[in-house]
Design goal:
- The protein contains 17 helices and twelve strands.
- The chain is an alpha+beta fold.
- It has four domains: 2-200, no CATH class; 218-319, 2-Layer Sandwich (Beta-Lactamase), CATH 3.30.450; 327-406, Helix Hairpins (Orthogonal Bundle), CATH 1.10.287; 416-562, Heat Shock Protein 90 (2-Layer Sandwich).
- The strands form three sheets. It has a five-stranded antiparallel sheet, with helices on both faces. Strands 7-9-10-12-11 form a five-stranded mixed sheet, covered by helices on one side. The protein has a two-stranded antiparallel ribbon with strand order 6-8.
- A hairpin with a 3-residue loop joins strand 11 and strand 12 (554-562).
């Protein structure tokens, strides 16, 4: 108060106040608000009071209209609430203060101005947030008037006419402020209504787009309440899949669309949904039931998702009846194949034992026949006996090879860490006599360690090296080179190369087929099973085998085996 008092003592109070208000009035004039000129008489003051009362009532009615529009548009916001409160309190105080016996009291004039202005500012700030700073700035400028009125009430001497002039100017200023506020309110209310209308239209369009996409999905979709599990929405595919209407689906429950035989019950479904909420999306197979009681298989993808402003269970269901039928058929075929393999294995065992026994007797009797009839049987008879014994030997070898072939997949050993050098040593030891007789030279590099069946690795090396020794050029000692490299894809590539007679690459795939021979039996012995066994061994280990050759130059076999056998 001391600072204000010093200012008022130094300058003429009324002139100083008018100058301060004039600055504010220039703002209103600049933005297009016309302020009437009042001469400061009592008559003008009364007319100004009447004009203010009518104008403030019109302002409050305008605020009420805006609030009603916002409420109708569904925009029941803090702005609407503040406006309604401003209308009730503002009208009450305006009427009470204007009609009371103290209406002429300057203090009540200030109170009336302050109350109505306060609610106008609140309303404007909430509806038109960007104009809040402007309105508050104007309101602060009116604090000077309130200080002035307070000094008048405290007894500082002013002329009566000066007081009336100050009050009249205050009224004019307040009417100007409310006029500006009204204009801002009108413009912003139109903008708010337009925005609300646009938002409503966009919301309806989005809802239509969502429903169109929702119903066009080729999987059934359920939307469940997170707390109760109730079905809140379904799409058209769900109604088709479960043969029900949307109303029936919404009135139903998880139990109504499940097989209800363990584990396909509502209790188990609730567990899946709980896991979806706590652990993330869940994918599982489910036995479903339609409204007609038909059971079918579905694949369920359940997750907890934000839909709108709430959490919901989103359950996508796909009919997998055909896939299940195919899986059952494959399982049946697999079981039948396993049974056939067991039968084949049993047959091979019987063949190896029961069929070889008569062959051994034939060979034995042939030997006895040769010994006892050596002097009486001529060359032709001995030739017949020799050919009989050779056929018996081939038959025995064929049975042995066939048994070995049948047991590659059924009687294989366990997979373990195997040094391929050890398996190669075993094979060379088995073939040492053939290698020595052919004067063959083996050139080898160190081989790596892999996960494999050691006995089958020995068989693999033995069969390929035996072929290299057997199919050699006449008069030329065979040279066999064995190398290996480890590749970046986790495999070992083994190369076995020879300088033998080779073969036409037209038959590069045929040589791995059982009983297929490229040369006559009289030229080269064998049963045509050896390379077929090699291919089966490599495939059991998850690898590949291939051959390259040039007739008259030699052949190269390439074997690719994984270093680590994941199914061991």
């Amino acid at each position: 108060m001391s600072l204000i008092g010093t200012i008022l003592r130094k300058y003429d109070a009324v002139d100083w106040l008018i100058k301060q208000k004039a600055r504010t009035l220039l703002i209103f004039i600049a933005i297009g608000i016309t302020v009437p000129i009042i001469d400061g008489t009592v008559t003008s003051l009364m007319l100004g009071r009447i004009a203010f009362t009518v104008y403030s009532d019109l302002l409050l009615i305008l605020m009420a209209g805006i609030s009603v529009v916002l409420l109708i548009r569904g925009k029941y916001t803090a702005a609407s609430s503040a406006a309604i409160l401003a209308i009730i309190v503002g009208l009450f105080f305006s009427r009470f203060l204007s009609a009371g016996k103290y209406a002429q009291d300057i203090t009540y004039e200030v109170a009336q101005n302050a109350i109505i202005l306060m609610f106008v500012i609140v309303f404007t700030a909430l509806v038109a947030e960007k104009t809040a700073q402007l309105i508050i700035t104007i309101a602060l400028s009116m604090l000077i008037e309130f200080f002035y009125i307070a000094m008048v009430r405290s007894g500082i001497p002013f002329s009566q006419q000066g007081a009336f002039d100050a009050i009249a100017l205050s009224k004019l200023l307040f009417i100007g402020v409310t006029g500006l506020v009204s204009a801002l309110l009108f413009l912003n209310s139109r903008r708010a209504i337009a925005v609300a209308h646009s938002e409503g239209r966009i919301s309806r369009e989005n809802e239509q787009k969502f429903r169109m996409i929702f119903d066009s999905v080729n999987d059934a979709i359920f939307v469940h309440d997170v707390e109760t599990g109730a079905i809140l929405d379904v799409n058209r595919k769900m109604c088709e899949m479960y043969r029900c209407s949307r109303e029936e689906a919404l009135a139903g429950s998880i139990s109504a669309f499940s097989a209800n035989t363990p584990p396909y019950t509502a209790v188990e479904a609730a567990r899946w949904l709980t896991r979806a909420r706590e652990e993330g999306p869940q994918l599982f197979d489910w036995r479903a039931r339609d409204r007609l009681g038909n059971l079918f298989w579905v694949e369920v993808n359940a997750r907890c998702a934000e839909i709108g402003d709430a959490k919901r269970f989103l359950v996508v269901v796909r009919d997998i009846s055909q896939r299940k039928t195919a899986e059952d058929r494959i399982a049946s075929y697999t079981a039948e194949l396993e049974r056939s393999n067991r039968d084949l294995e049993d047959f091979a065992y019987i063949a190896s034992h029961d069929l070889q026994e008569p062959l051994r007797k034939v060979r034995t009797f042939g030997d006895l026949l040769v010994k006892k009839t050596a002097d009486t049987v001529g060359d032709e008879g001995r030739n017949y006996v020799t050919r009989m014994q050779q056929s018996t030997t081939r038959m025995q070898q064929l049975i042995i090879d066939l048994l070995a072939y049948s047991r590659v997949g059924t009687r294989g050993g366990i997979f373990e860490h195997v040094r391929l050098d050890d398996a190669l040593d075993d094979a060379l030891e088995t073939l040492d006599l053939e290698i020595e007789n052919a004067h063959a030279r083996i050139e080898r590099q160190p081989l790596p360690m892999i996960d494999a069946d050691r006995s089958q690795m020995r068989q693999l090396f033995q069969n390929i090296i035996a072929n290299a020794v057997k199919f050699r050029k006449p008069g030329l000692p065979p040279v066999i080179r064995i190398t290996a490299v480890e590749t970046d894809d986790g495999f070992v590539s083994i190369s076995i190369e020879d300088n033998g007679i080779g073969f036409d690459e037209t038959y590069r795939d045929k040589i791995f087929v059982i009983f297929q021979r490229l040369h006559g039996r009289d030229d080269f012995g064998g049963t045509g099973v050896g390379l077929a066994i090699c291919k089966k061994i490599v495939e059991r280990h998850g690898g590949t085998i291939s051959a390259e050759s040039t007739a008259g130059i030699g052949s190269r076999f390439t074997i690719r085996l994984p270093r680590v056998h994941t199914n061991a």
